[in-house]
Amino acid sequence: MKTNPPRTMVGGMPMPGLLERVLKAVFLTVICAVVVFPFIGVISTSLAPPAEVTKAGGFVLFPTKGIDLTAYRSILSGGTVTQALLVSGFITAVGTTIAVLLTCTLGWALSRRGTVGNRALLLIVLISLLFNPGMIPSYLVVQQFGLLNSLWAVIVPVSVSAFNVIVVRSFFVGLPAEIIDAARIDGASEWKLFRHIGLPLSKAVIAVIGLFYGVGYWNSFFNAMLYLNDSSKWPLQLVLRTYVVNGVELGGQDLGLGSEAVPPQTSIQMAILMISIVPVLCVYPFIQRHFAKGVLTGAVKG
Fold first, then answer.
1. Across residues 33-47, what is the average pLDDT?
2. Is residue 90 packed enough to be buried (19+ CB in 10 Å), middle (13-18) or exposed (0-12)?
3. What is the dihedral of CA 202, 208, 211, 212, to 10 degrees?
4. How far is CA 24 from each of CA 8, 13, 31, rounded to the nearest angstrom?
5. Which whole number is the average pLDDT over 38-50?
6. In this structure, are residues 137 and 76 in contact, taking their beta carbons and an 8 Å threshold?
7. Buried b or exposed e, range 111-120, using 16+ CB within 10 angstroms
């Protein structure tokens, strides 16, 4: 009988398998380093003392002289960045609340088969997934409604996403019909069905679309750039684009420091960048456990 020669073993594992695992580990380590390295640099530069940032030429990987919060105190001292942070908070909170309410109510209405205009309205929502309005028509609509140079111009036009509506509708369609029928027999109206059955059973999908809307509003800058002429109404992302991406310097008057010394511009820019990132990083871990459940259930059912 012919026997195959034994394979080389290292620690009880065949050599080809060990080589494959080592290559995967090296590849993943390189990818993680490429992602993490710039982020560490941003954090370190924003926390490094101004003298060290100036000496390093604008970028510090690891601060060697301790942590200094001068850059954060400067941008949060009541100037342009502080105002933009409050504006972004208002836009995100109000916009997300309105968007979630509109999306859930529309998704519930579209999930109730047999209601008047259900199919026509669903067709309109589906068509809007394929055809988006251009920049000029959108601007003209906002202008005709008198929303120019108003925060509502950033909130209202994007308050309903057709994709999110379809996800919510699919979730509502997949709810057990027996529960809804039993509630109807007990005399529940459509509004009570939505309030006491639909919403409590859809916490996962609501959390997911709330995250989508919240991140979208927090990161929005293009609509603000189009519709807001008053710089005091700029959200944080538009300030980030102006003073970080475009390289416009922030002076003492812009920061609300008056005659006080202004930290290096690189420290200020990195601090603004960190403030724009941290809120999303803080919220995402609490929503992550609902993410797969909400999206997959809403997309597959119905």
1. 86
2. middle
3. -120
4. 20, 16, 11
5. 85
6. no
7. bbeeeeeeee
Euclidean distance between CA atoms 154 and 217, whole angstroms = 8
Identity at 121, one-letter amino acid code: L
Q: Where are the domains of the chain?
A: 14-68, 80-235+277-300
Nearest to 199 by CA among 226, 172, 236: 172
User: Structure tokens of 140?
Assistant: 């003209």
pLDDT of residue 100 exceeding 90: yes
Kindly state the tokens that stand for 68. 């200094």
**16 Cβ neighbours under 8 A, 6+ residues apart:** 7
Query: Which band of pLDDT confidence, cut at 50, 70 and 90, is reported for residue 16?
Result: low
Q: So what's the pLDDT on residue 302?
A: 45
As a whole number of angstroms, the distance between CA 57 and CA 272 comes to 19
Q: What is the pLDDT of residues 244-295, one digit of tens each?
A: 777 777 776 767 666 567 778 888 888 888 888 888 888 877 776 666 555 5
3-state secondary structure the chain: CCCCCCCCEECCEEHHHHHHHHHHHHHHHHHHHHHHHHHHHHHHHHHCCHHHHHHHCCCCCCCCCCCCCHHHHHHCCCCHHHHHHHHHHHHHHHHHHHHHHHHHHHHHHHHCCCCCCHHHHHHHHHHHHHCCCCHHHHHHHHHHCCCCCCCHHHHHHHCCCHHHHHHHHHHHHCCCHHHHHHHHHCCCCHHHHHHHHHHHHCHHHHHHHHHHHHHHHHHCCHHHHHHCCCHHHCCHHHHHHHHHHCCCCCCHHHHCCCCCCCCCHHHHHHHHHHHHHHHHHHHHHHHHHHHHHHHHHHHHCC
Measured in degrees and rounded to the nearest 5, phi and psi for residue 184 equal -65, -40
Domain 80-235+277-300 falls under CATH 2.60.40.420: no
